[in-house]
Amino acid sequence: MRELSEKPVRTDARAPGRASVLAVAAGTFTVVTAEMTPVGLLTPIGASLGVGAGTAGWTLTVTGLVAAATAPFVPRAAGRADRRTALIVLMLLLAAANLLAAWAPNFGVLLAARVLVGLGMGGVWALAAGLAPRLVPPRAVPAATSTIFGGVAAASVLGVPMGAFVQALVGWRAAFVAVAALAVAAACAMAALLPPLPAAEPASEGRGARRLRGRRAVATGITVTILLVTGHFAAYTFVRPVLEDTAGLGPGAVGTLLLLYGIAGVAGNFAAGLRAPAAPRATLAVLAAGVAGAVALVPLFGTTHAGASVLMVVWGLAYGGVSVGVQTWLLAASGPDEAERVTALFVGVFNGGIALGAFAGGLVTDTAGTGPLMVFAAALAAAALGVTLTAARRGR
């Protein structure tokens, strides 16, 4: 399909190199850690604030909804502001939001803090995810994109398990304080390592965004994103109660399995980053099949520590490549001057999928239990596989 052919990308005249890419990756790591921290804390948050696991899952749903609603408008809201300055301000907002979450005396205040987290993380991700072509020479863009999205995968390795382990040691509030400290550190790294990044395109977004959504390749990539991300987060938001119910695991064992999942996710991210530029459809088909298969098999073979470990590794390998795989697809389907627009659209849809998945997963968990939840999530991932295969046949 012509829409997925290679297109030249514009690189700033003085590409600053790997150190600045690592600073951006630190930002994506921090925002995804901030967003995902409640995943490992739902049980203690619910017990402390007097709400059930499904209700506690709203801490993820609200963040995703806010990020989905605001991310597509971030480039326009930022206008001609330097993107480096905007990123630093958003990281500091993220730090303040997590301190508020740590202090929250009731569930309402915690949700308000998570709204601010959504504003910060949606903005950072929308501006940061498409920066690779501006930071490195064209030949290094695929590796730099994988590194930036490696921050997303690394958040699963260190972020979610970190929250679970900190909670086990000193309580769930301390986990949010730790995330606030990470956000301040990432802001300092950006201030020190990023070059000035003036706005790369005009501030008007509406007509360009509508034009992007009207392209078949972009619409297909967005459809795959919403199905796959919704299915994943319907299951992953409640992975702690799922593992507790299915395999009878305690907090320490759950933290270990989340660590295994995250390590596999980093490997999957870089593997997909190497393969996706040459074969975006085939890469996404493999990833969707891996997520669907692993999630569907948890109720059957995740009843032991060993079985759950294997499935979490497969799940991590598959889902770890989704962000960079879809981003590569959408960048190839868009024009050379549309990276910021298509990235903002992707981030909005991605976070909408997170919110929808967490909400739907909470409903299924509260009404039917964790077993049907995994079947529901696997069905959505299988639907994403179907859309990807259809696109592949159409492309041929």
Write a short abstract of this structure.
By secondary structure, this protein is an all-alpha fold. 80% of the residues lie in helices and 0% in strands.
What does this structure look like?
This protein has 396 residues and is mainly α. It has a single domain, classed as Growth Hormone, Chain: A (Up-down Bundle), CATH 1.20.1250.20. The chain has 19 helices and no strands.
SSE arrangement:
Blueprint: H1 18-36, H2 42-49, H3 53-56, H4 58-70, H5 74-78, H6 83-103, H7 107-128, H8 132-135, H9 141-170, H10 172-193, H11 206-214, H12 216-236, H13 239-247, H14 251-275, H15 280-301, H16 305-320, H17 322-333, H18 339-368, H19 370-395
Helix pairs in contact: 1-7, 1-9, 1-10, 4-7, 4-18, 6-7, 6-10, 7-18, 9-10, 9-14, 12-15, 12-17, 12-18, 12-19, 14-16, 14-17, 15-16, 15-17, 15-19, 17-18, 18-19
Radius of gyration, Cα only, in angstroms?
Answer: 19 Å
The number of distinct β-strands equals: 0
So what's the CATH class? Mainly Alpha
Can you identify the CATH superfamily? MFS general substrate transporter like domains
Q: Major sheet: size, sense and barrel closure?
A: none
N→C terminal distance: 7 Å
By DSSP (H or I, 4+ residues per run), the number of helices equals 19
| β-sheet strand percentage | under 5%
SSE class? mainly alpha
Spans of 5+ residues with little confidence (pLDDT < 50)?
Answer: 5-15, 202-207
How helix-rich are the residues, as a percent range? over 70%
CATH T-level topology: Growth Hormone, Chain: A
Number of domains: 1
Order of helices and strands: HHHHHHHHHHHHHHHHHHH
CATH architecture: Up-down Bundle
State the shape: globular
Oligomer: single chain
